[in-house]
TrEMBL record:
EC number: 1.3.8.7, 1.3.8.8
UniProt record similarity statement: Belongs to the acyl-CoA dehydrogenase family.
Domain annotation Acyl-CoA dehydrogenase C-terminal bacterial-type: ranges: 457-729
Name of the featured protein: Acyl-coenzyme A dehydrogenase
Pfam families, per the entry: ACDH_C, Acyl-CoA_dh_1, Acyl-CoA_dh_N
Pathway: Lipid metabolism; fatty acid beta-oxidation
Needed cofactors: FAD
Any GO CC annotation of this UniProt entry: cytoplasm
Keyword Methyltransferase in record: no
Enzyme class: oxidoreductase
Alphabetic keyword roster: FAD, Flavoprotein, Oxidoreductase
Residues in Acyl-CoA dehydrogenase/oxidase C-terminal domain copies: 303-450
């Protein structure tokens, strides 16, 4: 420690001692999770004064010519091979030719570098591939995305030894090995650190030679690709009771590669997750012996598995499920808009009813928002960032909003989406929603504990440095470091207080914003809300300390605000990157109005429930003196937003780009055909309605329309009829215990004969 300092030794020291008392104990797994990944735009939002020029200068995510060719070639070819009804209800699996195609075209090796035989694609290309496939078959999308997300491939690339990479990555890239990763077990779901799966360091025999290794026992479940995997990535707790590698008994979570043909491995049974038939199931290991070099990264990585997993997840959670969710929302927007346009009730397209416009606008705007945030996140990943907090936001918010969009789509479609069969293009997607909500970190846990809990420490400009100073074993050194960062924090908080006060009392009129045309005011409001968020977060941390960790509802509300700030930033970035398209402004307006409503309501809820009522009163005076005042999208915005998907247009195509389009006789292809025919014949149909004539022959005879126009309208009507029809099945095709009822005529004849005889 340096010489005497009045500030440090007289003022800071008692604060340092107090902070030691309120700082919650942090487990090794919590610390490793916090240290995984990095921060990006989330850190700017936490400052209370985001630098919009930094956001707008971020290069948009783009595809290389090779990646574009893959999407236009193998991906489209794969989509053409997929029949979702047969996959889910007849085969209960992808057909053999699809498995062969996926392997041959290296879909499992998208993220593996070319030097190891992979495709070496960017995160954005990975996202685009998953996005397109998922609009054709969720089962195929999950099958492709899992090996490229959290799994042996990414762990080997990041942490594997050179020998491990050379041995396994080429085999994973070309499909000779099918990977899975075993993390979740009956005892350890969201709390993965509580797993009881074990690996005891000992000597054993492997391939005829005695060597040092681990004897493993485990039980895992919910493992995607598990039933068909040939290479299992396994998380377990390593123990060294005989101190063969060091002085510690418990070494911590470790990850290793387990070829599934080893003695003691039991694998092959299947779960059926929400009637989705991607390969998923449990597996067991009983006294499975592996050499030490099967640990990913070798012996040096013993006990580092949790940090390795969290680092890999920091990127993977931002790609796969957000891509599938954004695709689901875009698919819902395109199909629901088309259906609402061609389906008539009371001689009016149902999309013209205000009651339908409201969910239709919500679907369209959600599609705009999710794809905007997906692209922004991929741009960060393309630049080499691994934003853990943002990945958590994306997984949580994308899957939750997809759920709302799909529910809305089901409501608008009505019976068309309820009756299952080959022509139902919504049912499978609807059933798959709970899978996305649950996997890669359950949404309830992510919302209540992770987004703000992790974000407050990682993304805050000073808090992590303060915690590190408090955790310093050398108290004198810790005090010195704490003194320097604490007073910077105080200065920052005072600046934030006055900034939040000024911005909120003026309605954000003078908040920082770039010159963004019609969207400039939106930037000002986000700057205003960011300053209010930074101030309220600081005050909550100051007054609650470690107790905030247990105030899950407060933490969730803070997390909701941070999530909205990020998602709305993505929407503004998309608006700018796409050239400020006037036709798309209604979608941007809807997103902003809805997001601002959520932000203001969450602030009101935080201020109503903050335990320190004096601080809550001061904060209310500063940031929300008039309460929550944003009501959400206006009727005008809702109407304009709904119109985006009700007519063919460049705006509709921008809103729903790069979905799978297969020209077959399936439900989606029928819908697209009918949509184009109906909208093209709209003027003809109007003339018939004005003349109060429905019969086409009569209309031609009276000269209302020409024969060519009658033929055009007849084709549109026929196409609509094919869309709105639903599937039916022979009773014996649905039930193996079906028995044909007695012939009714014969029954009454016999009854009459019995009465006559009596």
């Amino acid at each position: 420690m340096s010489s005497f300092s009045f500030r440090r030794d007289i003022i800071t020291r008692p604060i340092f001692s107090w902070a030691h008392g309120v700082l919650p104990a942090m487990s090794d797994t919590e610390r490793e999770a916090l240290e995984a990944g990095d921060v990006w735009w989330d850190a700017d939002l936490f400052t209370g004064n985001p630098d919009w020029s930094k956001l707008l200068a971020t290069a948009p995510a783009t595809l290389t010519p090779e990646e574009q060719a893959f999407l236009a070639g193998p991906v489209d070819e794969l989509c053409g091979m997929l029949d979702d009804w047969k996959i889910n209800w007849e085969w209960r699996n992808l057909p053999p030719e699809v498995w062969s195609f996926i392997k041959a075209k290296k879909f499992f090796g998208m993220i593996i570098p070319k030097e190891f035989g992979g495709l070496g694609f960017s995160p954005y290309a990975h996202s685009e591939v998953v996005r397109k496939i998922s609009t054709r078959s969720v089962t195929a999308a999950v099958t492709v995305m899992v090996p490229n997300s959290l799994g042996p491939g990414e762990l080997l690339m990041r942490f594997g030894t050179r020998e491990q990479q050379q041995q396994w990555l080429p085999r994973l890239a070309d499909g000779r090995e099918i990977p899975c990763f075993g993390l979740t077990s009956p005892e350890a779901g969201s709390d993965a650190a509580s797993m009881i799966d074990s690996g005891i360091i000992c000597k054993g025999t492997f391939e005829g030679r005695e060597m040092l290794g681990l004897r493993l026992n485990w039980y895992k479940r919910y493992i995607t690709l598990g039933p068909v995997a040939t290479l299992l990535g396994l998380a377990f707790k390593a123990y060294d009771p005989d101190h063969l590698v060091g002085s510690q008994d418990e070494l911590g979570i470790t990850v290793a590669l387990i070829p599934t043909h080893l003695a003691g491995v039991e694998i092959g049974r299947r779960h059926l997750p929400s009637m989705q038939v991607f390969q998923n199931g449990p597996n067991w290991g009983r006294d499975v012996f592996i050499p030490m070099d099967y640990i990913i990264g070798g012996e040096a990585r013993l006990g580092q598995g949790w940090k390795m997993l969290m680092t890999a997840l920091a990127a993977g959670r931002g790609i796969s499920l957000p891509s599938l969710s954004a695709a689901g929302a875009a698919f819902a927007a395109r199909t629901t808009g088309a259906y609402a346009r061609i389906r008539e009730q009371f001689n009016v397209p149902i999309g013209k009813f205000e009651g339908i416009e409201e969910p239709l606008a919500r679907i369209a705007a959600t599609a705009y928002l999710l794809d905007a945030a997906r692209r922004l996140t991929c741009a960060a990943l393309n630049q080499g960032h691994h934003p853990a907090v943002i990945s958590g936001i994306m997984k949580l918010q994308a899957t939750e909003r997809m759920r709302i969009a799909i529910d809305d789509a089901m409501d608008v479609h009505g019976g068309k989406a309820v009756i299952d069969g080959p022509q139902n293009y919504m049912g499978s997607l609807y059933r798959s929603v709970p899978v996305g909500i649950t996997v890669e970190g359950a949404n309830i846990l992510t919302r209540n504990l992770i987004v703000f809990g992790q974000g407050a420490i990682r993304a805050h400009p000073f808090l992590l440095d303060e915690m590190n100073a408090l955790g310093e074993e050398d108290r004198a050194k810790g005090l010195d470091a704490f003194d320097k960062v604490f007073w910077k924090h105080i200065g920052h908080s005072i600046t934030t207080l006055f900034r939040a006060w000024g911005r909120n009392w003026t309605g954000g009129a003078f908040a920082s914003a770039p010159d963004a045309g019609d969207a400039t005011g939106f930037y000002r409001q986000l700057s205003r809300y960011s300053s209010a968020f930074a101030l309220c977060a600081d005050m909550a941390l100051l007054t609650l300390g470690g107790a905030l960790k247990r105030k899950e509802m407060l933490s969730a509300r803070f997390g909701d605000i941070l999530s909205e700030l990020y998602l709305l930033s993505g929407a503004l970035k998309r608006w700018e990157d796409e050239g400020r398209q006037p036709a798309d402004f209604a979608a941007l307006e809807w997103c902003m109005a809805s997001g601002f409503k959520t932000i203001e309501n969450r602030f009101a809820e935080i201020l109503a429930n903050l335990p320190n009522r004096f601080v809550a009163s001061v904060l209310k005076f500063v940031v929300q003196p008039l309460g929550a005042r944003v009501l959400g999208p206006s009727d005008r915005v809702i109407h304009q937003c709904a119109q985006l998907v009700l007519e063919p247009s460049a705006a509709r195509d921008r809103l729903t780009p790069d979905l799978s389009h297969v020209d077959d006789d399936g439900g989606v292809a029928r819908l697209e055909k009918a949509f184009l025919l109906v909208t093209a014949a709209e003027d003809i149909a109007k003339r018939l309605r004005a003349a109060r004539i429905h019969d086409l022959k009569e209309a031609v005879k009276k000269g209302v329309i020409t024969q060519a126009e009658a033929d055009q309208l007849a084709a549109a009507r026929e196409a609509v009829a094919k869309v709105i029809e639903v599937d039916d099945f022979a009773p014996e095709a649905l039930s193996p215990i079906y028995t044909k009822p007695a012939d009714v005529h014969q029954f009454f004849q016999e009854l009459g004969e019995q009465r006559a005889a009596s």
